[in-house]
Amino acid sequence: MAPPMSPPISLAAAFLKGLEDALSPPLRAILWRVLGLGLVLSALLIAGAYQALGYAPSTGWGWADEIIRIAGGILAAIGLAFFFPVVMTTLQSLFLDEAAAKVTARDYPADPPGREVGFAEGLASGLRFLGLAVMLNILALPLQLVGLFLPVVNILLFLVLNGYLVGREYFEQVAMRYASAPEAARRRRANRGLAFGAGVLGTGLMVVPVVNLIAPLVTVAAMVHLERGVRLGRKAQG
């Protein structure tokens, strides 16, 4: 059964719908799973920092050595508090395909569910993305140096560079559920403005405190709605 046709969704509407999806029970389950993993990982890192300081040169006073170890653990905890959103974003990226499937099942039950992106295909896509990210950051280094004196340059560079990368990765990740990796890339290039705009909005959410904890889920859910509109539009034109 062919999915019902619907008018294309705007970026703003897609992200509002994505926020609703991210707070729904199916995606909340992913969020709690990721939060648990993040807390366990953080606890292990703090414990590792505490234990590692046990191998530091001794002061000769047992109480002083213990204070140093405790202080090191506290400093590690403070550092992780700043980086915890990054940890959450990284862990959520492992569940983007599952999140896309849950959004489709929740909002478009009459649509074909799409295929599960295999580990090998997902890994190849991730490695290509990583290589591109490294290359673009190296090329952008001169502008980053300029940004040391003109902060607005760094802000714009951050939004443009990461907006492109996030838009590319998330659009193709969702599109690969209904197409091969090369075809998903072609669709993204044919709709590069839409993918880039979604990437900029997603990047913006990822720097907002508290919101950044669910930003990847909001972004992938929004991309499901946008990619569906593109895909159905192609079928209508065909």
UniProtKB/TrEMBL annotation:
Going by the UniProt record, its keywords in alphabetical order are: Membrane, Transmembrane, Transmembrane helix
The record's subcellular location field reads:
Membrane
Membrane topology reported for the UniProt record: Multi-pass membrane protein
* Residue stretches spanning the membrane: 30-50, 70-96, 145-167, 194-224
* Xref: InterPro entries: CysZ/EI24
Is Lipoprotein given among the entry's keywords?
A: no
- Mainly resides where? membrane
User: What is the name of the protein in this document?
Assistant: Cysteine biosynthesis protein CysZ
